[in-house]
Amino acid sequence: MSMIDPTARIEDGAVIGEGTSIGPYCIIGPDVVIGANCKLIAHVHITAQTTIGDGCTIYPFASLGTPPQSLSYRGELTRLQIGQGCTIREQVTMNAGTVAGGGITRVGDRGYFMNCSHVGHDCQVGNDVIFATSATLGGHCEIGDFVFIGGLSAVHQFTRIGSQVMVGGVCGVRGDVIPFGLVNGQYASLEGLNIVGMKRRKFTRERLATVRSFYQKLFHGPGIFSERLAAVQPLAPEDPAIAEILTFIAEAKHRALCLPDGDGNGN
């Protein structure tokens, strides 16, 4: 049985899952679907065609499915999809998609979004991510699984961040970040591999050594970057992480690659 505070406003057409509790002064739009066993603590606003998976907890003053912050938006009814088991803290904002961007913003399972973090329109966010306080995504970003984005960091629109990346605090991320990368600095640069995260994902010492060797050859070997990239292509079968990094680089779309300081040969 769902529990709905009498001060909450639930529009006709909204679907509320079994066991979900909706606290004081929440506002739920007519096209919203909320899964089972969710908890909306108080003052939560959900609109557009927003779908929220089972077992999510949403804290006061979060605003989900609000119109995209895009000058191309003309009032179309677009979508926000949030997976299961997410924790969405105070004043988090997640915008619905735009027609030009496919009409949907997607957020995966088990994400932890700290207060004031933001997911822009048409972003595709993976599973098990952590966004620290005020971490911000511009529109159309692609974020892999197990990514950590530090507090007050912002990711430029159309930027891709590969799986298991760690972004430090107060970073401006303007380029695509390879899977397993570690980036830091005011204008984020690649500092190395996210070794702590890789260990948490059960990388063995042998695998770490293999991927580290590949990383050194690609980013710190002799010659320009394009030459080094061509030279390391045969290393893809040595480890799935190497193959993933090379595939990520090959699939570049809009942004240049985030590189270590001092290497301007990324294009």
From TrEMBL:
<keyword id="KW-0012">Acyltransferase</keyword>
<dbReference type="GO" id="GO:0016020">
    <property type="term" value="C:membrane"/>
</dbReference>
<protein>
    <submittedName>
        <fullName>Acyl-[acyl-carrier-protein]--UDP-N-acetylglucosamine O-acyltransferase</fullName>
    </submittedName>
</protein>
<dbReference type="GO" id="GO:0008780">
    <property type="term" value="F:acyl-[acyl-carrier-protein]-UDP-N-acetylglucosamine O-acyltransferase activity"/>
</dbReference>
<keyword id="KW-0444">Lipid biosynthesis</keyword>
<dbReference type="GO" id="GO:0009245">
    <property type="term" value="P:lipid A biosynthetic process"/>
</dbReference>
<dbReference type="InterPro" id="IPR001451">
    <property type="entry name" value="Hexapep"/>
</dbReference>
<dbReference type="Pfam" id="PF00132">
    <property type="entry name" value="Hexapep"/>
</dbReference>
<dbReference type="InterPro" id="IPR029098">
    <property type="entry name" value="Acetyltransf_C"/>
</dbReference>
<keyword id="KW-0808">Transferase</keyword>
<keyword id="KW-0441">Lipid A biosynthesis</keyword>
<dbReference type="Pfam" id="PF13720">
    <property type="entry name" value="Acetyltransf_11"/>
</dbReference>
<dbReference type="InterPro" id="IPR010137">
    <property type="entry name" value="Lipid_A_LpxA"/>
</dbReference>
<feature type="domain" description="UDP N-acetylglucosamine O-acyltransferase C-terminal">
    <location>
        <begin position="176"/>
        <end position="257"/>
    </location>
</feature>
<dbReference type="InterPro" id="IPR037157">
    <property type="entry name" value="Acetyltransf_C_sf"/>
</dbReference>
<dbReference type="InterPro" id="IPR011004">
    <property type="entry name" value="Trimer_LpxA-like_sf"/>
</dbReference>
<keyword id="KW-0443">Lipid metabolism</keyword>
